[in-house]
Amino acid sequence: MPMFRELFISIYLFVFKLIFNFFNLIPLQNKTVFIVSFKNNLDTTINLLDELIDNHNIIILDSNNVFQKSSNYTVLNFKPHNIIDFLTSIYHLATARHIIIDNYYAFLSVTNFKTEVKCTQLWHAVGAMKLFGLNDMSNGSRSEKAIKRFKAVYDRFDSVVVGSRKMEQIFKASFGIEDETRFLRTGIPRTDFFFNDVAKQKAMQQFKDDFPLAADRKVILYAPTYREDQLNDTSISLQMNLDKMYKQLKSNYILLLRLHPALNNHFINKYPGFVFNVSEYESINTLLVGSDILITDYSSIPFEFAILNKPMIFYTYDLDTYGATRGLPDNYMESVPGPIAYDTDDIIQLIKQEQFDLEKVKHFANEWNEYSQGNSTQNLIESLYAIPKETEQIREHV
C-alpha cells in the first residue's frame, strides 16, 4: 500500500508541476493567494488585508470547505476532482506575489516560484503538544523520497510566523530551518481575539443565548485532539464515562463535547440538559470564552485557552500508546499547565477538588504567546506588505 501511495503522489506532483510551469510563464499580478485547511488564523488576516491594501486581489484556495463565498475575495475548491477550480487555483499560485499557507502541502515541493514571490507559513496552531514535520514518529517508516519531498516543501517557506521563541525552536527542528531571519516574530493572528474585550463580551453573550443552562451552572468543555487514524473507525468510543459524569456533576455543571468526526457521526446523547454535543458549533472561540474548565489531551487549544487564565485538565488515557505512535515531547508531563487524569474518576475528583494552579496557567500563556499581544494580525500584514504602521485599528476588527 505505501508503494502505491508513493506512486500516486509522484504522478500527481508530476502533472501539477507541468501545469504550474505553464502558468509560471505569465507575469506576476498584484494578489495574495491563501491556501487554507483551517479558518481561525486566516480569516482575520484576510479581512484586515482587504481593508488595509487597495487594488489587491485576494484568492482563497480552500482545501477543507471552511470559507464562504464573498464579494471581497475569490474562493476556489482546491481539490483535483473539481477540475475547473483546481486548474484556476494553480494559475493563481503561479501568478501571485504572495502565498500564505497554514499547513503542509506536498505540491509546494514542485512549485518553483519566481524570485519576487514570498511564501509565508502561517501555521494553524499557536503551539505544539505533539511532534510533527521532520520529528514525526511515523517518518521512520517512510521512504527516502518522501522525506526528501518534505524537506523540499519546508524549503519553500520564505517566512514562518511565530508567536514565541519556544515555538520558533520547534519549527527549527520540525522544518529543518537554521536561518533565523526566516522567522516573523509578529505573533499569531488567531490570538488577537483573546485580547479583545469587546469581542469576548460579544462571544460571552452569544454563549449565554445558545446555552441558557450555563447561567446557574459551571461549564466543562471536553475537546480531545483530532486523531487521523480514527477518521474511518466506527468502532471508537468516547473514552469518558458519561454515566459517572452525570451522577457526580449534574447539579453544578454542564458538559460540552467537541468530538472527533468518526465518533460524532454515531454519538447518541443520553443526557440532554447535562451533555451538549458542540462538535459542529461554528465558533470554538465562543466555546472557550463560555467554558469554565477545559478538558483536553494533546490538542493545541490550551495555548489560547490559557490566555483566559482558566483551569485545564489533561485527560491522557492513551498517553503511552499515543506517545509511541504519534510522538510527544519528553517533558510533556511537566509542561502542561494543569493536572493529568487517566480515567473518568480522576476527572471527577479533580473537578470537585478545584485545586488548579492558575499561576502555572499564566506562565504557560506568557511563554507560548510571547509575541502575541492583541495586534498580531496587523503586525503580520505590515511586515509582509511593508505598509506604514497603523493605529489601534486591529482591536476594532478582530
CATH homologous superfamily identity of the largest domain:
CDP-glycerol glycerophosphotransferase, N-terminal domain
Element-by-element helix/strand order:
HEHEEHEEHEHEHEHEHEHEHEHHEHHHH
Number of strands: 13
Strand portion: 5-15%
Overall 3D form: globular
Class of the largest domain in CATH? Alpha Beta
Instruction: Quote the CATH topology of the largest domain.
Output: Rossmann fold
Q: What is the helix fraction of residues, given as a range? A: 25-40%
Span between termini: 45 Å
Unreliable residue stretches: 391-398
Strand order of the largest sheet: 3-2-1-4-5-6-7
The number of helical elements comes to 16
Helix and strand topology:
Elements (H helix, E strand, L loop, with lengths): L1 H22 L5 E8 L3 H13 L4 E6 L11 E4 L5 H13 E6 L16 E4 L22 H12 L3 E3 L3 H11 L7 E2 L12 H14 L7 E5 L19 H8 L3 E5 L3 H4 L10 E3 L6 H7 L2 E4 L5 H4 L6 E4 L3 H7 L6 H4 L4 E2 L2 H10 L4 H11 L7 H10 L8 H4 L1
